[in-house]
Design goal:
The protein has helices at about 10-25, 35-45, 45-55, 65-75, 90-105, 115-135, 135-140, 200-215, 235-240, 270-280, 280-285, 370-380, 400-410, 425-430, 430-435, 450-460, 470-480, 485-490; strands spanning about 75-80, 110-115, 145, 155, 160-165, 185-190, 225-230, 245-250, 305, 315-325, 335-350, 350-365, 385-390, 415-420, 440-445, 490-495. It is of the alpha/beta class. The chain is elongated, with a radius of gyration of 28 Å.
Length: about 500
């Protein structure tokens, strides 16, 4: 039932020819006098349709897992579904269900999204071949494909439907089929190992899903389903599953009771052999959907400790510190502007401190005006004891702008200019023991994108593509709180 995905045009042609050969071997025509009965039953029962008209894909009995997967994938709204590698999730949700909805005219406009446009065209081509050459479909339903060549990744049918293939991030706004907006979008396994290590790419993918794809759907019963494998805790699928209002579901090859998810195709003995072959790390990621932290990473997921806002009231707060790492540019190609505000608790959760509670973060590619606005917002909101500002080279010039704003507001910020004699890697890396033993905690607010970005930068600290301005400002704030800025660098109070 699983089909190898082509990587080149030649491989696509070979794949399509393979589908044709499988059709000839399995999908021979059925008794013509039973057409009416078959069509009626297929319209009412998706599984009868799949096994009757796509026997070259559905070669075994249907496992309960597939029934559950299809149910979850067809729920209106956003569905974030993770299933093991090789368990035919794409064949079922992307190919077979899209085809069924086309044959019966259920969903006038469907979109298939893959990592690239070419990959999406490949998926759409497989559906077109079924409509054009599947002998059972043609005999019982006639020729249904109306317009569109398989190289286009965009075709229409005599049943009034359109299927379009797109790559991740491509424009989807305003796309319609006659009066119909997209009724169903399947985002099929768009993440690869390299892309999930880059928080910027992950964020762009999620923003595209939430800000472009989802709003483009039919507002009444539109379906957006992301299916894939959880290859990283910091990947887009994993993050989307945590969003409020998202229908999230995860399946493992071997469940908690020790049973195979699909015993007919993957009996336990076979799964055990796979685990022995691929190793524990790949097994947990690709088959169990339990990606582990990189054991060599400086900061890891299990080190991230959080606190509730209401817990602050019961803590003994000794002081408040904030620190800022400015950047001259405001584009994503350059460094972020970052401000971290933390509360220093001498006692927290009944334990003696100090504990460093990151209560607010500002980690953005934005303008200097907004950066300055954050500094003053933090001052008025938390009244910090000291506010550190990195003053390497050009950053010293910021003092003039800050003094100008201070004049308009009638206040003086408790600024400390900070320079560093230790490398950024050394300074930020020293926070690892604090984080691991739970002395450095972050406010538990899943909707705070700045706090999330700060944490993501910590987790991606060892990746060259990941910015580290948030962790840098956090380290500076802790250095001020510890009063050991002389060990870390030099500090000078601005008056």
């Amino acid at each position: 039932m699983q089909v190898k995905r082509p990587r080149t045009r030649k491989e696509l042609l070979e794949k399509l020819e393979g589908i044709r050969q499988a059709m000839r071997a399995h999908a021979s025509t059925l008794p013509p006098d039973e057409v009416k009965e078959r069509r009626a039953r297929a319209a009412a029962d998706p599984w009868f349709f799949f096994h009757t008209y796509l026997p070259h894909y559905f070669t075994q009995d249907t496992p309960q897992f597939h029934k559950d997967l299809l149910t979850e994938a067809n729920k209106p709204g956003i569905n974030a579904l993770a299933a093991p590698r090789g368990f035919a999730k794409s064949t079922l949700v992307t190919t077979a269900e899209t085809l069924r909805r086309v044959v019966f005219g259920i969903t006038p406009f469907q979109i298939i999204v893959k990592e690239t446009k070419d990959a999406a065209v490949d998926e759409v081509a497989a559906i077109q071949v079924e409509l054009e050459e599947n002998p059972r479909l043609v005999a019982d339903f006639g020729q249904m494909k109306k317009r569109g060549d398989w190289e286009d990744g965009d075709f229409t049918t005599t049943t009034g439907c359109r299927v379009l293939g797109l790559g991740t991030g491509q424009s989807i706004r305003g796309k319609k089929h006659r009066q119909h907006r997209p009724g169903r979008v399947v985002v099929d396994d768009p993440e690869k190992d390299k892309s999930v290590k880059n928080p910027r790419l992950v964020k762009e993918r999620i923003d595209w899903i939430l800000q472009a794809v989802f709003p483009s759907l039919d507002p009444d019963d539109g379906i957006l389903t992301w299916i894939g494998t959880l290859i990283s805790r910091r990947g887009g699928l994993a993050i989307l599953q945590k969003r409020e209002g998202v229908n999230a579901h995860t399946w493992s090859a071997i469940d908690k009771l020790g049973k195979s998810l699909w015993d007919k195709r993957f009996p336990l003995e076979r799964l055990k052999k796979i685990r022995a072959t691929v190793g524990s790390k790949a097994w947990r990621t690709e088959y169990q959907n339990e990606p582990a932290d990189d054991p060599d990473a400086t900061f890891q997921e299990h080190m991230i400790h959080r606190f509730k806002r209401e817990e602050v009231a019961t803590a003994k707060i000794a002081a408040v510190f904030a620190a800022a790492d400015p950047s001259l540019e405001s584009t994503t190609k350059h460094d972020c502007k970052a401000v971290t505000t933390l509360l220093v608790a001498s006692e927290f959760r009944g334990l003696q401190g100090p504990f460093y509670l990151v209560v607010r973060a500002f980690v953005r590619h934005t303008t200097l005006e907004k950066f300055f606005a954050e500094l003053f917002h933090v001052f008025f909101l938390y009244k910090p004891t000291r506010m550190g500002l990195e003053t390497q080279s050009w950053q010293k010039l910021l003092l003039n702008d800050i003094r100008r704003i201070e004049g308009t507001k009638g206040v003086r910020l408790p600024l400390v200019g900070m320079t560093h004699s230790v490398s950024k890697e050394g300074r930020i890396g020293r926070l690892q023991p604090l984080m691991e033993r739970g002395a450095l905690l972050f406010l538990d607010d899943p909707d705070d994108m700045d706090l999330n970005e700060l944490i993501e930068q910590f987790l991606g600290f060892d990746e060259p593509a990941v910015k580290d301005d948030g962790p840098d400002s956090c380290e500076m704030a802790i250095a001020l709180a510890e009063g050991n800025s002389r060990k870390i660098g030099k500090a000078r109070v601005w008056r």
